Amino acid sequence: MKHLILALTTYLALATQAACGTALAIGDCRPPLMWLPVVLALTWFGDARGIVWTALIGLLVDGLAGGRFGVEMLATTLAAALTLSLRPDEDVRSRGAWSAWQFAVIGTGLVLSHGLNSVLSDGPAVTMASLVTLAGEATYGTGFCVLSSQAVRLFHQPEGASPRFRT
Length: 167
Prior knowledge:
The protein is mainly alpha-helical. It has helices at 2-20, 35-44, 48-64, 71-83, 95-120, 128-155.
């Protein structure tokens, strides 16, 4: 069931990114919606399955990106491999630890994607201004992750979970 939900989430995130990504922009920061299913895949599957899912999501994004084919897949796979060891344990209930990890995944992926596009596709160079913009986009994406997880918790509470602190 998780695989089906992840596939649907990936489709919805990529369709929303393509349809109205610029309309949701705040200044220069566009929402990195394609990173939401990446974070979801790594949250649910903290092993090789999560990395395979991120590679597949990156491959789908490559079909929508205007750069060299394979750059986004490489960026998502490397970001997953680099940040998976930082993932909090399942029993960690601190929302701050999970949010920091989500920011690390999204931020690392955005920097890798921008850097690889700069080197391999003759895209814009990585500058301090672009890093600040990417940090804003990572914060924007982390906000979407927090909002979506809160929405899921609002509608679904596992049996036996305390109503005061939902996990």
